[in-house]
Amino acid sequence: MKALLISDLPRSTDDLQPLFSEYKFDLIHYRSPLKALDNIEEISPNIVLINTRDFPRHWKPITQHIRWDTSREEIPVILLTPSDFSADEADKAMFLGVQGIINLKENNNFNDDVLKELRMIFNRYNYNHIKNIEKSVQFLFTNPINETIITGTVKNLTENDIVFLPDMPANVGNLNAGMVLDQCSLKIEHNFIVPNCKIVSNDGVLNLKFVDLSGEDKKTITDFLN
């Protein structure tokens, strides 16, 4: 996995590298936001962090560029902000598709509080398991409206829900939040589960919640994740 850090602090990678290495990230650091923007497609990061103190005019166009063709679940965007980052700016950030705002102290260092918040975000997106999930978990279902078989990639999995990126998002464009998918197949390594899933949201990436999953099936998922 790749993490893109856009910050003018020369020691940024030194401070963050141990945490990112723990979560199996290759940390790529750009001190120029324009160069980062030029190369973002080639880098294809799994997560992006932008120091808004260093680049107060660039975080918005960079976020808009990322969100133009990727969802919040595909590439989380995290802002590292100064203490005077206003509530109005925070509202704009969330509207544009930012997932997290972490306040930097006056010395602009990545202290223990910053690392703790980053760890919480990584755990929220299950980054400690993401490689195993994409390699070891397969999911497909039948579109209940037109009977099309939908394949794709599992981006996140818990005992309660699943985040699924369809190979062809256009084939799920007619599915809305609240609908129940009752023809699903979930393969976890050598184990098969046949769950019913309720659509929580659909913005090209499907956020699904398992419906009445048995205790045995939950244990299969938990054993895999742990």
Automatic annotation (TrEMBL):
<protein>
    <submittedName>
        <fullName>Uncharacterized protein</fullName>
    </submittedName>
</protein>
<dbReference type="InterPro" id="IPR011006">
    <property type="entry name" value="CheY-like_superfamily"/>
</dbReference>
